[in-house]
Amino acid sequence: DLSAERRLRxxxxxxxxxxxxxxxxxxxxxIFPTSEEYKDIVQVPGDFAKxxxxxxxxxxxxxxxxxxxxxxxxxxxxxxxxxWKKLWDTSKPVCNYNFDADKGPIFVExxxxxxxxxxxxxxDRHVLAGHGHELCFLWEGNDPGQSAQxxxxxxxxxxxxVANFLKSKNVQKGDRVCIYMSMIPELPIAMLACARLGAIHxxxxxxxxxxxxxxxxxxxxxxxxxxxxxxxxxxxxxPLKELADRALEICLRDGxxxxxxxxxxxxxxxxxxxxVPWVEGRDLWWQDNVSQFSVDCPVEWMAAxxxxxxxxxxxxxxxxxxxxxxxxGYMVYAGFxxxxxxxxxxGDIFWCTADCGWITGHTYLTYGPLFNRxxxxxxxxxxxxxxxxRWWEIVDKFKVSILYAAPTAIRTLAAxxxxxxxxxxxxxxxxxxxxxxxxSPKTWRWYYEVCGDSRCPIIDTWWQTETGACMISPLPGxxxxxxxxxxxxxxxxxxxxxxxxxxxLHGACExxxxxxxxxPGIARxxxxxxxxxxxxxxxTWKGLYxxxxxxxxxxxxxxxxxxxVDDVLNVSGHRISTxxxxxxxxxxxxxxxxxxxxxxxxLKGQGIYAFVTLSQQAKPSDALKKELQDIVRKxxxxxxxxxxxxxxxxxxxxxxxxxxxRILRKIAARxxxxxxxxxxxxxxxxxxxxxxxx
Length: 694
Ligand code: WTA
Known about the structure:
Blueprint lengths: L1 H14 L19 H4 L9 H4 L5 H13 L1 H9 L15 E4 L8 E4 L4 E2 L1 H14 L3 E6 L6 E5 H17 L7 E5 L5 H12 L2 E4 L6 H11 L3 E5 L2 E3 L2 E3 L1 H14 L7 E5 L17 E3 H5 L11 E2 L3 E7 L7 E6 H15 L7 E4 L6 H13 L3 E5 L10 H9 L3 E4 L1 H8 L3 H5 L8 E5 L5 H11 L6 E4 L32 E5 L5 E2 L3 E8 L8 E2 L3 H9 L6 E9 L5 E6 L3 E4 L2 E4 H9 L4 E11 L3 E10 L7 H14 L8 E4 L13 H8 L16 H8 L2
Parallel strand pairs: 4-17, 6-7, 6-8, 7-14, 8-11, 11-12, 16-17, 16-18, 18-19, 19-20, 30-31
Antiparallel strand pairs: 1-2, 3-13, 4-5, 9-10, 14-15, 15-24, 21-22, 21-23, 23-25, 25-26, 27-28, 29-30
Helix pairs in contact: 1-19, 4-5, 6-7, 6-8, 6-13, 7-8, 9-10, 12-13, 15-17
The structure holds 5'-O-[(S)-ethoxy(hydroxy)phosphoryl]adenosine (WTA).
């Protein structure tokens, strides 16, 4: 059919490597630090270093070198801090891998021969050691006044009940379970229940549409769907069960009837039970069913390289990839990075504001903190509801000591002014973190000076869904910070900066960020498509992992992430594939072509800008613009809907027919004087027409 053909054309477009004149040629101009800012050093404040786990760069360098030269000793020691039912084969290297496609299939294995269970390490281990009464989750609902406290024992019991429920539905080791919930404690509980049984969880962010959810359920052939009646974020109601129903209908139409059970948590704060649509025989209420099961459930001992979970993420091409993380390596890396990057001490109250639907919520709201017996704050709502001081109110209420947030939220709060922040004490805070997108020196400064009263170090943590956990970040206390800079790689992470040809650059330089040799938390494959894993991450630079990000390394060896170098957008910290948005736009019958680029957006980091050409009969109108935005909302989710629709008569193409995105980015950024070489275009006049239409 015509729309399928157009979609295919769009995808093919993206298979062609992106043209880059230099790394990140036009992107994020406002984010790039000035030459002065590169030299701006902020010393570790006060006596933070005295109490920190690591207090000098030389200490770090010693450990870093050990991790590189003696991984068996270093990682063996770290892994020994966890419970293993059976130790890995210590007579063999702790890591076995191949990153070079010419030498055979790409693979990574850590702690081979070992058996453990992630849920046991997150919960049982602590409860058995007498810490069951300690607080695990401090939950704060969307509306002030809704809150809950769960101890480690409480969580373990609830996890066992859900695990027993899943078992009663014949969920076994290796089966996929899809989770589509709002930010309530039952979400991490569901994840841990899967981990207990060895079932592979696939959490789908509650902001995704029915169609996206259906695509993910079909791709991983999930047996069970765990959801909730609805969620609330600010004034917005997320009708999750209704969306889940539609997704399951799509799955049925596809001939896939595997989802036989849909377990629904009755989130009556958000929506009364009688308003929740219901399918008899398939749907079950969580509260009515799960509580009947025993609070004891034996764990399934898993091999170190058995899959733990999958998480879908967007790349430049095709549909989202279900990245697989495995038991042993992920556990060790998530737990160890949590401890050191956040300088976690007993008694800390840790708050990660990310949603469990993203990797940050997996690694630093669920697994990493729980391996360390941390107390975690979990918040269902948004920073500005019902007022702009909500975050700081929560910080004071729970005496949060470590806050980990995304620059997009920090920018939103900064826009509300300093007074709202200063109204609250925030005395409990001792460390601030940032993740998900570059943080500009200006936003960094505001976070540091206003939110942290120049008293709390900031860790700007760079990592990816693929890396499982932090890769580049200050270790607070160990070296001075620079506003807007992720600084140095974590123990054993061998970062390289490459030029266009893949040649390693030394000293101060700018180029493509890649990584030599695996770390324990690297994703092992793409679910059902190992060749896609190999071609996405290991074909660009021979023998190296390609991150998809550009970076600069300054004279102090500090790494500054400059953003994606492929066609992935980062909108409010959400990874969005331009190809997917284009695919959705061209499925509208009146849209013949679409090209999507990012532009600098004050609050979101990047905004989505779509150039659209229409069929002959169609006329540009506000109504059509809304239809196009809605079709993206429906097919992907609201967060992917383009802000700007630019009606184009045609798009700038090279003679070989490839769209020149470089030019489109310039037009979106209104940088008309700096358009660059247009001589290779098949029709250079197109550019002028586009500028006129801006
Ligand atoms: C970007 C989120 C600059 C980067 C954990 C990466 C960052 C993508 C930072 C991964 C940071 C993440 N500074 N950019 N501190 N952290 N990014 O998979 O472009 O959702 O490739 O993982 O976010 O996004 P993902």
